[in-house]
Amino acid sequence: MNKSKSSTGGLTVEFDLKNIGPVTGDEVAQLYLNRQNASVVMPVQELKGFKRISLKAGESQHLVFEVKAEDLKIYNAEMQWVNEDLDLNVMVGPSSDNIALSARLK
Q: pTM score, two decimals?
């Protein structure tokens, strides 16, 4: 998984999804974030994007998730809508309880 913060304060997550089965199949790739060191209590996993993909047997597809800076904002303890300087756990998988890829951003 490739991940980077953009110059606008957003986040780009890229990865390849491959159908390793013998038949055509559908998958729903889901992007979750977990914020570490926030000034308020945050969800363990926060869904930030998903894509439904149909792949033929053996086929791969490169997927890109773009998360805007506005989508990373939270209400802090003073109830202000802000982007805090946090560590982010970025997770991708077919469901919240089946994470296939993860990485940490500072």
A: 0.86
